[in-house]
């Protein structure tokens, strides 16, 4: 049954992808890519990746759709004539696809427990997590502790991208801005979305906090929580208008959050050195090494969540503010 | 049945190339970015598919007496962070597209090249 379902979902993915590329209406393409992300999240769930499914659903179907739509509002939502060399492109793409498919025949069968990927370091992570870190969610343990360096790097990539968007979009556009604009009012005149949205927003924030702090025990963590929290504020901004959302969390706070989360993460790493361990070694944070790991993971996940929230909201506000001319 | 065991990887190949086609053949810059995110999604699917173990479960320990078989946590960690980095870089790309629209008045690649030649 699961097998049939996963074949169905995978086939739907390919069909949606073809429709996204073929369709000329960019608005429809963006909506279809939201559906694509949701299907992908369902696939991840079937492949035992609950954490990844949660992230993909929040980021792919939620935030990236909002970003694409705000970019469309500032550019155009109709694609012009296709390029003349698309037949060459089609030949290149088909040849490459056939080559990749030919290469897959050498791959171990899907789900094979003896595949090389499951022999190398994964069993070590599964065993050591139980003894050294003692939290149920192995994904969080690997993300926060074993591969903490990696995650620190990713946080700084997110940080840099956020700063980049702020630089690009806060430059003056050269066109006079209108003082009165309908965008800042949001959907306030639509009663049903407004009432439902207002009811939902606090619960989405509550869920984000749950995902943040329950990440050690179930699917969740800073990346997911940050995306969900940002989605709640974006929903509020869409319903009540940009201005009200900025009153709730001002721009200066957001800048502080972008830097503060990354700094908190680095500070935990440096604390490890000061207490006599290595950079990002949490065992020395407490008398009991396992308790130290718990404290370290909690703090760095908080850092990740703060930075991701700050960056995603700043990006949204940067796009929304640009929209006003 | 042996062929069906590789179906996930074939879907990966198809999605990768559909995304790549949009990047190289489409002239609209936003369409190119959508293509790039399809390309990215294909890579995510490849990693997560490789991490799956037949009969396995999500790598979260439970209190059950019998030890279940867990899927590989490592690809999940890599892709989890990659998704969030992906949205940040996508936002950067969209920011550049918005600036191009403001400077050139168009987001079609051939028209931008036309303006540049003048």
Provide an overview of this structure.
The complex is a heterodimer of chains A (325) and B (118). Chain A folds into two domains: 1-116; 121-172 and 181-325, no CATH class. The radius of gyration of chain A is 23 Å and the shape is globular. Chain A has helices at residues 2-22, 26-46, 50-74, 86-104, 122-133, 138-146, 148-170, 191-213, 222-240, 242-248, 251-274, 289-322. Chain A is an all-alpha fold and 325 residues long. Chain A contains twelve helices and no strands. Chain B has 118 residues and is mostly helical. Chain B is 70% helix and 0% strand. Chain B is built from four helices and no strands. The longest helix of chain B is centred in the last third of the chain and has 32 residues, at 73-104. The N and C termini of chain B lie far apart (59 Å). At the A-B interface, helix 1, helix 2, helix 3, helix 4 and helix 5 of A face helix 1, helix 2 and helix 3 of B.
Main attributes of the structure:
heterodimer; A: 325 residues; mainly alpha; 2 domains; 12 helices; B: 118 residues; Helix Hairpins; 4 helices; 70% helix; elongated
Which CATH-level-2 architecture of chain B?
Orthogonal Bundle
Instruction: Provide the number of structural domains of chain B.
Output: 1
Radius of gyration of chain A: 23 Å
Number of strands of chain A: 0
What topology does this entry show?
The complex is a heterodimer of chains A (325) and B (118).
Chain A: H1 2-22, H2 26-46, H3 50-74, H4 86-104, H5 122-133, H6 138-146, H7 148-170, H8 191-213, H9 222-240, H10 242-248, H11 251-274, H12 289-322
Helix pairs in contact in A: 1-2, 2-3, 3-9, 3-12, 5-6, 6-7, 6-12, 7-11, 7-12, 8-9, 9-10, 9-12, 11-12
Chain B: H1 7-25, H2 29-51, H3 73-104, H4 109-117
Helix pairs in contact in B: 1-2, 2-3
